[in-house]
Specification:
Elements: E1 2-5, E2 18-20, H1 23-30, E3 36-38, H2 41-73, H3 91-102
Antiparallel strand pairs: 1-2, 1-3
Length: 103
């Protein structure tokens, strides 16, 4: 039985994969729990279209991240903050200060 996974399942596949499973596993476990749908020709076409959109979106986000990294590479950020007796800063506080300096 061929199914399209709706969620990642260990040792079976990740979300959107078209996999062949035993009929009992698909009928008794995957389909009732809505972890998979039957792999009809239309469903396979839709899954491939969805996967291609995901790949395109990931590529665009990666390009944006690379642009941001390139723009930050030239900047020098200096942050001064008071520390307690242990000379430690709170990570959340420092992150907020860094974000303010970057903007």
């Amino acid at each position: 039985m061929k199914v399209i996974l709706q969620k990642a399942i260990a040792k079976v596949g990740k979300k959107g994969d078209v996999v062949k499973v035993s009929a009992g596993y698909g009928r008794n476990y995957l389909l009732p729990r809505k972890l998979a749908v039957l792999a009809t020709s239309g469903a396979i076409r839709d899954a491939k279209l969805h996967q291609s959109k995901i790949v395109k979106t990931k590529k665009e986000l990666s390009e944006k991240a690379d642009d941001i990294i390139a723009s930050l590479a030239d900047k020098k950020i200096e942050i001064t903050a008071k520390a307690g007796q242990s000379q430690n800063h709170y990570p959340d506080y420092l992150l907020q200060r860094i974000m303010i300096q970057i903007k």
